[in-house]
């Protein structure tokens, strides 16, 4: 599963990669879909203690894919600036690889949805709690347990940081 980065100079530190996960608000979850086709979808998320949490409806393509294969990756792009005159892109991104599962324990599920809701509505605690109660029975919470995390930035950004 883990391949070493070819261009090590462009690799972000673990702390920088975590910082991107904590700052950004969406990414692309990649699963093994039906008939061997990859299935990638944009997702809101929250990162907490080496786990990434997502919410979902109770059924659908994503749920089927997770039930069929417990491995996934998740990509977050922090920066993607096209520089036409240089024929390049100044980018920073992070990819997490890990085991994915649907939380079945009610306490784990509740903790995960509370973390997610607090991230996106930090100033609305009472409304958050009410919304969670209203929809709790009709949602799944999904956990990606990170086994490997890697971040990378364009060589131009590396050079700019080094001065």
Summarize the structure in short.
With 163 residues, the protein is an alpha+beta fold.
How many strands, which pairing sense, and closed or not: the largest β-sheet? Answer: 8 strands, antiparallel
- Compressed to H and E, one letter per element, the order equals EHEEEEHEEHHEH
Number of distinct beta strands: 8
Report strand %: 35-45%
Percent in helix: 25-40%
Cα gyration radius (Å): 17 Å
Give the mean pLDDT.
93
Structural class: alpha+beta
Determine the number of helices (DSSP H or I, runs of at least 4 residues). Answer: 5
* Sequence stretches where pLDDT stays below 50 over 5 or more residues: none
> Any idea what the shape is?
globular
Distance between the termini: 35 Å
Structure description:
- Strands 1, 2, 3, 4, 5, 6, 7 and 8 form an eight-stranded antiparallel beta sheet that branches.
- The protein starts with 10 loop residues before the first strand and ends with a helix.
- Helix 3 packs across helix 4.
- It is globular, with a radius of gyration of 17 Å.
- The model has no long low-confidence stretch (mean pLDDT 93).
- By secondary structure, it is α+β, with helices and mostly antiparallel strands.
- The chain has helices at 14-23, 61-68, 106-120, 125-135, 155-162; strands at residues 11-12, 26-32, 38-44, 46-48, 51-56, 71-83, 88-102, 140-153.
